[in-house]
Amino acid sequence: MDELVYTTLANRLRAGIRSGQLSPGSYLPTESTLMREQNVSRGTVRRAIDVLVREGLVISRQGRGHQVRQGTALVWIASQPERNQGRADGPSDTWSRSVLAQGFTPSEQITTEIGYASDAVARWLALAAREPVSIRRRLRFVDGAPYSIADSFYPRSIVAGSDVELPADVQPGVYAIFAALGRPWARTVDRLCSRAPTPEESATLAIPRGVAVAEVVRRSFDPAGIPVRLTLFVLPGDRHEIEYEHAEATT
Predict the structure, then answer these.
(1) Average pLDDT in the chain
(2) Could you give the CA distance from residue 202 to residue 181 in angstroms, rounded to a whole number?
(3) What is the helix (H) or strand (E) element at residue 230, kind and residue range?
(4) I want to staple 107 with a disulfide (CB 3.0 to 4.6 A). Which of 137, 141, 168, 201 is the partner?
């Protein structure tokens, strides 16, 4: 019976959030108010609110109550090639221009390092274990808030000494550098899964409890079918909608 009571209360509060009656940024009624209005115990109120917290709909604010989560859903068009477009009228990479087109302000924090391929990276790039790789890590922001992670791995046997290893926006773009090296990618394959964020991802991206992330493993292959690029995207589920576009065969 108690489970039915707190589930019913959670359903009512969730419906209020989804209908806009409880708008983003507003606070839920206090525990005392909910106890009085719903004629339930404090334990029931707390269990109901905890359901919403675990779903990512509500954030607990120490000393202030429970706030309806504010968030902007960004459409990530995964099928657009992430290439530098060489534009002079603002950010030139595809992701930034897509964010701008949706009315938001993009920015990135880029760092680079040289390391050794982990077992997973070596498997995705068909490298020997512990083979050297160049890593470009990008923390992406929308309107100043951390939104996603995009870490790319490249075999050093291909990119050593190139601008790919510089901690900045690469001009005229990583793809152009690979093309100049005679190794442009001709095919890209994505693998997407949903999982719980790691503690580090939760802290870096301010992911609330109960929100999953979409992890996209992107591999790009040169004309000979050899993998030359691996990018791991981490996209919090409360602020992303992923879209793919496919051209239909005409024959």
Answers:
(1) 90
(2) 38
(3) strand 227-236
(4) 141
pTM: 0.79
* Of residues 182, 128, 142, 129, the one with CA closest to residue 159: 182
- Kindly tell me if the per-residue pLDDT of 48 is higher than 70: yes
Q: Which residues lie closer than 8 Å to 30 by C-beta, 6 or more apart?
A: 65
Which range (52-66, 113-127, 156-170) has the least confidence?
52-66
Strand partners, 84: 93
Strand, helix or coil at 223? Answer: coil
* Residue 193 near residue 218, CB atoms below 8 Å: no
C-beta of residue 216 within 8 angstroms of C-beta of residue 76: no
The alpha carbons of the chain give a radius of gyration, in whole angstroms, of 22
CATH of domain 74-243: 3.40.1410.10
The Cα 10–Cα 93 span in angstroms is 43
Confidence band, pLDDT 50/70/90 cuts, at residue 135: very high
